[in-house]
């Protein structure tokens, strides 16, 4: 069972494989640096999977992602997954479906991250980025 969190507003929406994918601030409210999280349903829809593969992919990703979290948005409930899990899903789609969206995901995630850190100096962004990477290596 994954966790729930109060209403979230997308930080950034970008096109991946010509489908809108929403990025959100981390729903983990522990004050530690984190990368933007990705809407799982949006990400799955961006790869044109059949209903059966879509459900299977979502179920497997939720089993792998211990951090997945359901959040309320203005569009209803969605499941968010952390950046490392979303990145892994995108890379797996190249192997499984032959669809390479790694560059699109990278630039979309970077745009979301930039929006998240707009008030920081370059030095602060570097320190925050390093701490966010370290968070997911624990």
What does this structure look like?
The protein is of the alpha+beta class and 138 residues long. The protein is 48% helix and 20% strand. The relative contact order is 0.20. It starts with a strand and ends with a helix. α3 runs antiparallel to α4 (102-116). It has helices spanning 40-45, 51-64, 83-97, 102-116, 122-137; strands at 3-5, 12-16, 19-24, 37-39, 69-73, 76-81. A hairpin with a 2-residue loop joins β2 (12-16) and β3. It has a six-stranded mixed β-sheet with strand order 1-5-6-4-3-2. The chain has five helices and six strands.
How far apart are the first and last residues' alpha carbons, in Å? 22 Å
The counted number of beta strands is 6
Strand order, sheet with most strands: 1-5-6-4-3-2
Arithmetic mean pLDDT: 85
In short:
This protein has 138 residues and is α+β, with helices and mostly antiparallel strands. The chain is built from five helices and six strands.
Descriptive key words:
about 140 residues, 6-stranded mixed sheet, 5 helices
Write the layout of secondary structure elements.
Blueprint: E1 3-5, E2 12-16, E3 19-24, E4 37-39, H1 40-45, H2 51-64, E5 69-73, E6 76-81, H3 83-97, H4 102-116, H5 122-137
Parallel strand pairs: 1-5
Antiparallel strand pairs: 2-3, 3-4, 4-6, 5-6
